[in-house]
């Protein structure tokens, strides 16, 4: 498949209804960021002595960056098959952008998230061997798009490394809103401490202030998150996070602009911890990334058909 973005080899030797939905899945597998960058992700610094530039990959060859603000979101262009998701719109938000590392001034500019101001974006984290979160999120997002389109969904990406940097977190939310998406999923990987393992799904808290009002999407987003968490466990074999969410795989936050500004059901998914060697071995595996995409797709489909 064209989405096998193989990384360098790794070095190895609350809501009650939501929790109940996850608990119904058999958690038989062995047991993302915790830093506070833009929208709380990717703030973990590279390991001591590492070149910070190694945490992102160059813009893929053959794609010429367009001037900021002129790139339109990547969208389904081909005819779609009839399927269970026909007539539904899903927006996939690949976290960060490989070009962010070359535009630190721009991504450090603060934007309004309704309840305050945060940086436009961050560079994201990476594995110790330099596999960038921005590459991971694009790869999984491509795989996820293919799976959802096969079910008949109209799929839009907030970006496809087709712009120099960003989009900013407020624009990412706006893309989902303007698409009137039935579901939005922001794909990430965490940059936490070694020993912290597993995935977690971040849900929007009840927030109202400035331009933010999540009152109409808290319940639907929680349902979307619970469906994704349950299917992700079953499909990937990864356990819920052992350091966030109380072993439920679910975490609710009120400080993320991408959630605060959304008017449609939306969640963030931290697929694993890039800074832990065991999780990194999964995240850098093309076959595991396909499982991750399948888990996300099944969770989205389960929510939309529920």
Q: Can you walk me through this structure?
A:
- This protein has 306 residues and is of the alpha/beta class.
- A seven-stranded mixed β-sheet has the order 1-5-2-6-11-7-10, with helices on both faces.
- Helix 3 packs across helix 8.
- It starts with 15 loop residues before the first helix and ends with a helix.
Shape: globular
What are the secondary-structure elements, in order, as H or E? Answer: HEEHEEHEHEEEEHEHEHH
Radius of gyration: 17 Å
**Quaternary structure classification:** single chain
Q: How would a crystallographer describe the biggest sheet?
A: 7 strands, mixed
Mean pLDDT: 83
Helix content percent band: 25-40%
Give the strand line-up of the largest sheet: 1-5-2-6-11-7-10
Put simply, the count of helices is 8
Strand fraction equals 15-25%
The first-to-last residue Cα distance is 31 Å
The strand count comes to 11
Query: Would you tell me the structural class of the helices and strands?
Result: alpha/beta
Task: Provide key terms for this protein.
306 residues; alpha/beta; seven-stranded mixed β-sheet; two-stranded antiparallel ribbon; 8 helices; 11 strands; 30% helix; 15% strand
Describe the SSE topology.
Blueprint: H1 16-23, E1 74-75, E2 89-94, H2 104-108, E3 110-112, E4 117-119, H3 133-150, E5 154-157, H4 169-178, E6 183-190, E7 200-204, E8 208-209, E9 212-213, H5 218-236, E10 250-253, H6 257-260, E11 266-273, H7 277-283, H8 286-305
Parallel strand pairs: 2-5, 2-6, 6-11, 7-10
Antiparallel strand pairs: 1-5, 3-4, 7-11, 8-9
Helix pairs in contact: 1-5, 3-8, 5-8
């Amino acid at each position: 498949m064209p989405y096998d973005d193989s990384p360098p080899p790794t070095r190895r030797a609350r809501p009650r209804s939501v929790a109940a939905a996850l608990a119904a899945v058999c958690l038989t597998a062995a047991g993302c960021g915790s830093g506070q960058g833009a929208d709380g992700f990717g703030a973990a610094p590279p390991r001591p002595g590492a070149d910070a530039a190694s945490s992102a990959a160059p813009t893929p060859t053959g794609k010429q960056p367009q001037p900021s603000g002129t790139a339109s979101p990547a969208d389904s262009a081909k005819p779609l098959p009839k399927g269970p998701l026909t007539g539904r719109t899903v927006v996939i938000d690949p976290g960060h952008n490989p070009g962010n590392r070359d535009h630190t001034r721009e991504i450090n500019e603060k934007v309004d998230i309704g309840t305050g101001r945060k940086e436009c974006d961050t560079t994201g984290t990476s594995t110790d061997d330099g596999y960038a979160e921005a590459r991971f999120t694009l790869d999984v997002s491509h795989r996820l798009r293919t799976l959802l389109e096969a079910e008949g969904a109209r799929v839009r990406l907030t970006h496809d490394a087709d712009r120099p940097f960003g989009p900013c977190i407020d624009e990412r939310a706006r893309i989902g809103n303007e698409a009137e998406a039935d579901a939005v999923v922001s794909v990430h990987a965490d940059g936490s401490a070694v020993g912290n393992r597993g995935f977690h799904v971040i849900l929007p808290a009840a927030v109202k202030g400035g331009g933010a009002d999540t009152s109409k999407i808290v319940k639907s987003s929680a349902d979307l998150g619970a469906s994704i968490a349950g299917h992700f466990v079953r499909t990937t074999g990864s356990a819920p996070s052992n350091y966030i969410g109380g072993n439920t795989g679910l975490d609710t936050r009120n400080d993320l602009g991408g959630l605060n500004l959304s008017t449609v059901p939306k969640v963030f998914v931290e697929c694993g911890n890039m800074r832990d060697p065991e999780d990194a071995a999964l995240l850098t595996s093309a076959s595991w990334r396909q499982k991750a995409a399948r888990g996300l797709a099944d969770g989205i489909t389960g929510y939309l058909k529920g």
